[in-house]
Amino acid sequence: MNRENSADWSIDSSQLDSLTPLLDDSHAPQAEHLQPVTVWQLRQAVQEYEDAPFVLDGKALSMVQLVGTVEGCEESLSCITYTVRDHTGSIEVLDWNRLAAPIRAEGRPYVKVFGGLRSFGDGRMIDAACVLRMADGNELTAHLLEVIHSHLVQTHPAAKSPQKLPSKPQAHTRIEQEVMSVFAQADAAVGLAFESICRTLLGIASRLQVREALESLCDKGLMYTTQHDHFKMA
What we know:
The protein is of the alpha+beta class and 234 residues long.
């Protein structure tokens, strides 16, 4: 069975409700305390003594973020125990939120887990604050990039403050300035279609001039295309 095709990316309201404390600014873990990890990294984390915080890449783990597929789901009166697997291994996740519907293992849906790493006996598990069914497959790619970035920043301190080369101010043609003026008055989140820009600049610039200006602004990194003939400011 193809996991990627069989994964169910849907998300229901009860799971969104369970994430509310994390989305609330007064309860959410601060970005520097939320560590994106893989199962292998959780197994590599060290603990100086029993009940001491786990340390990974020289940093104490407060709240971890793991993305993987649900391989197993066992319910009890007090909690739900998930077996979550990523590309590096599997780990048990204890979810104490009995208000949310359990996420069944059928189809091996992808989930995002927030919680603390704990030890029990000779093993390790995640004491979950929240387990969410992933709503978008792109979240997996984003998570893996966050894992790599976090590891590099913590193991290569110089990467935290890269030196910036002085940049020269970029000169713009009159038409480029007109195009940017149109975007300044538009909804930045939505962007503008090529035809809409041409209508706004009718009598000021030809379609060819608008096209050339857009391509130049894209080359300068000031604009990008979201789909065919639709543009947003960078």
